[in-house]
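Lay summary

Proteins are chains of building blocks that fold into shapes. Our project writes down both the chain and a compact code for its shape. Here are two examples, one after the other.
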Amino acid sequence: MILNNGDVLTLSLDKSSGSGFQSKNEYLFGKIDMQLKLVPGNSAGTVTAYYLSSKGSTWDEIDFMFLGNLSKDPYILHTNVFSQGKDDWATMGGLVKTDWTQAPFTASYRNFNANACVWSNGASSCKSDAPSSTNGAWFSQELDSTSQQRLQWVRKNYMIYNYCTDDNRFPQGLPPEYRMS
């Protein structure tokens, strides 16, 4: 449902249907922002997602998924990066089941902003392969040492699964995109 003169989009899920949307443009690279309001209350078994995906039978994808929860439990943010159309994601073993009596589950999205190069008919809207210095300062940003320490703390205290270290999943060795120097 589109609300507030097109400023807010809500998506609903019930036992027989779900919903989604996609941008009108395809992007080569850029900075993309979106505000999400997650499903309130008991939303166990639902996923509110925001993701970037290429097209084709072997696609690449970057996912930001918020796993539903029991009332008053924290939401779990699941991130995923995969290539060539292969990586199932961790589901905590399906231990918590969806309570469909709480349906419909509704999430809201607003303030989509893409500071990005549009890809259309095999060409980019940007004049070069690098973002302009005025609009693309984010392209060269890096975490400072304090931010790196905070990220490590979050990983240590909140990361529940990292498939880049899942030897059972990749007995033949990690794919090239997961190997870090």
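And here is the second example, written the same way.
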Amino acid sequence: MNTEYTDAMSSSTASNRSLEYHVLNLFYDNEDNCALTALINNVRFHVIAETAKVRHSRIGQEYAKLLQAVKEGSLEDDLPSSDSGIDVRDSSDEDEAKLVAHGEDAEEALQRWMLSPLQSDIDEYAPIQSESAQISLAEWFDLPSHWYNLETKDKALHAIELEPDEDLHRRISKLLPEISIPKYIREVDAPFYQPADLIVSACSNVPPPYRPTRIQLSDSKDILFLKLVDPGQPQCTKREISILDRIAKKGLHDHIRCPRLKGIVTSGNDRTKIMGFLQTDIPNPVPLTIKLDAEVPQKLRDHWASETQRMKDVLHEHSIVWGDAKADNFMVDENDELWIIDFGGSYTEGWVDPKLNESMEGDDMGVDKIVNALHDPVANTWDPDTEKSFGGSPEINAKDKKRKAEHQDQEEEEPVVKKQRQSSAEQQKVYCYCDGPSSGRMIACDSVDCEREWFHFDCVGISEPPSDDREWFCEDCEAAE
């Protein structure tokens, strides 16, 4: 079909504001070509805007301005980070107001501009549904799809529907979350489910993108939280599943409040590939970041401060590093109880120094900042240098800068001097066959029982890591197999 964008931008935008859609993906390249995938009434619309095809002076200028505004980042900056993957859409009205940007931001304006020429096709292909029918997770990722190119003709913008070819199918396949998993993940103490056996109970776009978040088992009324994998960060999923399994096996759920691993979601029938995992659904979670507010009762904040320290200490007592310690990775439920989440690792600038990535010292640093912010949110939840909330007080930031400067100085030091400056904890922690500290490029052994855990590339004779779908074992663990 060929639908036209009206000559009056203002009237088109106004009429299209009522269109309800959900963004599955928004992408633009260095040549200012843009691609949007939107879900409307359980139908996917893929819209491609190529600079060469929207060259008409007025329309081209509108597109250029909208895309430039998106590039400049003129979006609300108060949303929780997306890496935790927790659905916070059921927050209270007060908390929801802090989580969702008001009005039309630059990204939304561009999305609506791209969808405007499709209005008649949307009415035909995706009529409003009186009641949403239950669909399986497999069906959700295989919904009807339509592809379009935007083009200018006769001073108007048109949407040209495309016949799906191999390239278009390849693009849509990239929207499917999937990673390969090694043997130690396949052997965790959790059931495996196929997408066809899971019913989508709820979806969310907070944090984006829009995705299924709550799942019901086909033979049960229980609702579980679904955390989809990020194909670009497969190690985060492997780490989190492994740690949740360790927490359960060590009986730590009796001591800390964190989601239980409830199942692994395969990608079809193949157990070597997964699209996510199921865990306890936290009732109406709100990121602790939102609670770093002087209006929240001091007694509650003091209690949460004590709990953050205690939970972190319990993990460390059992040799478990949390990783990515920050307020967004604590959740407050509807009963004001605190949950610790997200064991995928890494770090967030402003909370943990990069040099302390996935270390106990990094956990200590992040939790100390959380505690300070809870005790005194006015003094400790604003970073004037980055103009971002929850980055720490000026005093904390000054310490971070000093710490970073010291690490930069260490990079220039001789190895012997550098080793002398390491903390005693760092000196004691050794890896690899060489019994040396963590340094340079390293690879993890895929055996969950490996005593050395990490190995230097040089020591094991490799220059590049193996592909993600291949397991790698050190000599000792390979012999034990």
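What can we say about the second shape? Confidence is low (pLDDT under 50) at residues 1-16, 74-82, 96-103, 382-427.
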